[in-house]
Write a structure and sequence with these properties.
434 Repressor (Amino-terminal Domain), 51% helix, elongated, mainly alpha
Length: 101
């Protein structure tokens, strides 16, 4: 079945922010608590929860503090190969992007 994702990067960041906020509340943590545990300022956490805007490093700190960093591993892994035909079809691993003309 074809899966079409109509979510934009802004939508995805807002959804992640909402999920992080819900996780924080389930853990009965205030923004101050999360700030102390993650090292991310409370104002930055508030902006993230309202808008979805946050730096990658701060996002990772929040994920570690909320105990969900393990969900982020494997985001860029290669798909698992199910048959020998797929191995034959697999291209060599790229080391860098192609030069633009």
């Amino acid at each position: 079945m074809l899966h079409i994702n109509l979510e934009t990067p802004v939508d995805a960041s807002r959804r992640l922010a909402e999920e992080a906020r819900e996780r924080r509340l389930r853990l009965n943590m205030t923004r101050q608590d999360l700030a102390a545990k993650s090292g991310v300022p409370p104002d930055t956490l508030g902006l993230f929860e309202r808008t979805g805007r946050i730096s990658l490093v701060s996002f990772l700190k929040v994920a570690f503090a909320l105990g969900i960093a393990d969900r982020l591993t494997g985001l860029f892994d290669s798909p698992e190969i199910a048959s020998l035909d797929e191995i034959a079809d697999e291209r060599p691993k790229r080391q860098r992007a192609r030069k633009r003309k």
